[in-house]
Amino acid sequence: MARLTLLDWPVLRQLRGADPTGRGSAVTSARTRSTVPRTSTADGMAESICPYCAVGCSQRIFHQDGKVIQIEGNPESPVSRGRLCPKGAASEQLANSYLRQTTVRYRRPYATEWEDLDLDTAMDMIADRFIEARRKHWEDEDEQGRSLRRAMGIASLGGATIDNEENYLIKKFFTAAGAIQIENQARI
Ligand code: SF4
Which atom of ligand 1 is nearest to the CA of 52? Predict the structure, then answer.
C-alpha cells in the first residue's frame, strides 16, 4: 500500500482539488480508487432470464474461461429495468454450487443408496414407464359409451425453471398423449 502524505488528507484534497464539497474524488480512498468490478475480467456476457419465478427478470450473465462468474440485472429489460430480487441476484450459486447435481441420480426400489445412471439409460427408463402407464390407464370411453380418449395414469408437474417454450412443448406433448393433469408455474 502506498505511503500516505499530508497532501492525501481528505480536507486538503477537498480544498485543493476539483471537489470542494467533499462528496466525490476528494474523499475517495486509494483502496476505493483501485477497486474494479468483479465483471472486469469477464470474457463476455450473455443475456438471459432469471430461472426462478414468473416475473421473468432479465439477467446479464458474465463468463470467464467457460464458467459463469457473475449474474446481474439487465438494464435493457422493460420488465425489471436492471433489478433482481435477492434470489435472482444469487442465481450464480445455482450454476456454481458444489451441491449442484450434474449426473442422473437413481435409487432403485428397496435400495438404501443412490447411484449414478447415464442419461440415455435414464431417458429409456422414463419413456418405458410413460408408455406403460399410458397403456395401462387409457380410457377410451365411459360406461355410457361417450368418448373420453384420455390417460389418467400420467400427469405433468413443472417447475419455475421451465420456460415458456418448454411449457408449450410439454403441454402439446402431454395433451397429445392423453393426459389432462398438466400444471406448471407460469413464465413470461
Ligand atoms: S429476480 Fe426475483 S423476481 Fe425476478 S424472476 Fe428472478 S426470482 Fe423472480
Answer: 7
Pocket test for ligand 1, best of 50, 83, 91 (most atoms within 8 A of CB): 50
Going from the C-alpha of 13 to that of each of 1, 2, 26, 80, the distances in angstroms are: 19, 17, 5, 39
Print pLDDT tens along the chain (188 aa): 567 787 778 888 888 888 888 888 888 888 898 999 999 999 999 999 998 887 889 999 999 999 999 999 999 999 999 999 999 999 999 899 999 999 999 999 999 999 999 999 999 999 999 999 999 999 999 999 999 999 999 999 987 777 778 888 999 999 999 999 998 876 54
The CA 184 to ligand 1 mean position distance, Å, reads: 17
In angstroms, the CA 97 to CA 88 distance is 15
Residues with C-beta less than 6 Å from any ligand 1 atom: 50, 52-53, 55-57, 80, 84-85, 87-88
For residue 50, the CA-to-ligand 1 centroid distance in Å is 6
Contact 171, 182 (CB under 8 A): yes
Name all domains of the chain by residue range, CATH numbers in brackets. 44-96 (3.30.200.210), 137-183 (no CATH)
From ligand 1's centre to the CA of 17, what distance in Å? 43
